[in-house]
Write the structure tokens for this entry.
Amino acid sequence: MSAFDRLDEVAPLQLFPGFLARAIHGEELTLAVVEIDPDADLPEHHHANEQFGLVISGSLHFRVGDEEQELEAGETWRISSGTPHSARAGADGAVVLDVFAPPRTDWQSLATSEPQSPRWP
């Protein structure tokens, strides 16, 4: 296995309707670039993984526990293990970077599609 990957060669995973992730899994974490359709909703959920994120482009309305924030490019979030959270993309959608520890092994059962060009430069 190579130490390098090209995101346009990584098979996208359908996380939720409107949420397409390209994930790279390591021994201790998962790195994912997630393309989010305009106005797409991420329903409230929680997981055992700690999660950090960064908005690369677009915007999101994000809720973590009891805290809500409008996030734009360059803004980040932290989610502790087991904390309920949800999000809604802005009118132009968004591209975000997510990091999970431990790795998202539950994503291994998700449907993939053929690798394709990402929606960002």
